[in-house]
């Protein structure tokens, strides 16, 4: 049973909305599993009140928070320090409070690559066809290059956005921008296909491209975990491809946040189990 005392440390998540978040469940289970006297609670923070909420972290000695949509970029100017990854992305998903000094991190991209490693997928030297050039696409593309991907081809509905992202990333590795219409042309050269767009969250979403042409040799990853198996993953599986959904990314971005806050090895299996039970 959860036992809150005067010594219990408080952690949480800022989001707007935040009701859908699975992080409170996952992080509280992690604290409990390791016998750490801490709780993790949701904070619904209207973007207009973000400055006040961040001051509140210092004022109330809240030890750490995660940050989710639509606050990841907006929180940056309110923090005291930003690590290299978060600085590059211009977005923070994890904040650690050390005696009122707030440091911002971003564990999304590395959490994504960790989730591939967990599934036995080594990104080093691989060619990745990455669909989407928004915040998630940027985080994933940057981590893939940092962790040794050989080539990242960014495909986006709005080509200009893919081009802009590829320009930003080009000093980190081999990057190319293409429009969504050209995806089928490059499919045969890809070892991995990654969807970082929101397409597939709704059953009525039209496909990003003709999924029937997915070769069995490719690994197909969707960062969506609700639904558990998007149309992209369903068809890819039928075609014989290995598929990975976004559950692992969710767990591993949280695991990295946990490590930043506590310095302890996160109980990844426990974190994954409580989320699976919820979904
Ligand atoms: P996030 O931070 O979650 O990545 P975002 O910055 O709004 O969200 O980016 C959403 C991504 O999904 C973009 O790459 C977007 O393509 P555009 O840049 O062309 O807008 C992509 N996306 C959203 N809806 C889409 C759709 N119906 N078809 C194709 N791409 C879509």
Order of helices and strands: EHEHEEHEEHEHEHEHEEHEHH
Spans of at least 5 consecutive residues whose pLDDT stays below 50 are: none
CATH architecture of the largest domain: 3-Layer(aba) Sandwich
The main β sheet shows up as: 6 strands, mixed
CATH homologous superfamily of the largest domain, by name? NAD(P)-binding Rossmann-like Domain
CATH topology of the largest domain: Rossmann fold
Spell out which ligands are present.
Answer: 2'-monophosphoadenosine-5'-diphosphate
Strand content: 15-25%
Helical amount: 25-40%
Descriptors:
six-stranded parallel beta sheet; 2 domains; binds 2'-monophosphoadenosine-5'-diphosphate; six-stranded mixed beta sheet; Rossmann fold; about 35% helix; alpha/beta; 10 helices; 12 strands; about 280 residues
Overview of the molecule:
- The structure is a single chain.
- With 279 residues, the protein is α/β, with parallel strands linked by helices.
- It has 2 domains: 9-106 and 252-278, 3-Layer(aba) Sandwich (Rossmann fold), CATH 3.40.50.10860; 109-245, 3-Layer(aba) Sandwich (Rossmann fold), CATH 3.40.50.
- It contains 10 helices and 12 strands.
- It has a 6-stranded mixed sheet. A 6-stranded parallel sheet has the order 9-8-7-10-11-12, sandwiched between helices.
- Helix 1 packs across helix 9 (247-262).
- The chain is globular and about 60 Å long.
- It starts with 8 loop residues before the first strand and ends with a helix.
- The mean pLDDT is 97.
- The structure holds 2'-monophosphoadenosine-5'-diphosphate.
- The site of 2'-monophosphoadenosine-5'-diphosphate (ATR) has 15 residues, from helix 5.
